[in-house]
Amino acid sequence: MRVVAYNIQEFEKQTLAKANAKVHDLTLISNPLNLATIRYAEGKEVVIVSPQDNLDKELLNALYKIGVKKIITRSHSVNHIDLKHAGKLALHVANTPSTDDSPRSIAIQTIDNLNNWVDSKCLGAACHCSFDCSNKNNSIL
User: What pTM did the predictor assign?
Assistant: First the structure.
């Protein structure tokens, strides 16, 4: 998958790159996701965000218009994402729900989400899509 990760801190770079193992076309940038930096998501299928990135209706619309289909947050919380509007746009949304919130665990969960989407599997507890999909029967609970 073609992926851009926003708001990457220095300590996250190595763990995400190692977890990815060159499977996905992964671009890591330190900028936050906003309307001024959305250009980095052009041509990408997935954006990975931090809890500091506020994905409101306007930003979700802009992501949708440039072809982004999936969003992963590197956090337990999805409060910074307008899930209702993401559902209206049929955007897939996932988080990193493990209680282990170490950088290594978050990186592994993030890449696992990408891998499961490639394999057309539901993400189980990480799935925050607000629409019914046929893959829910293939859940990785």
Answer: 0.91
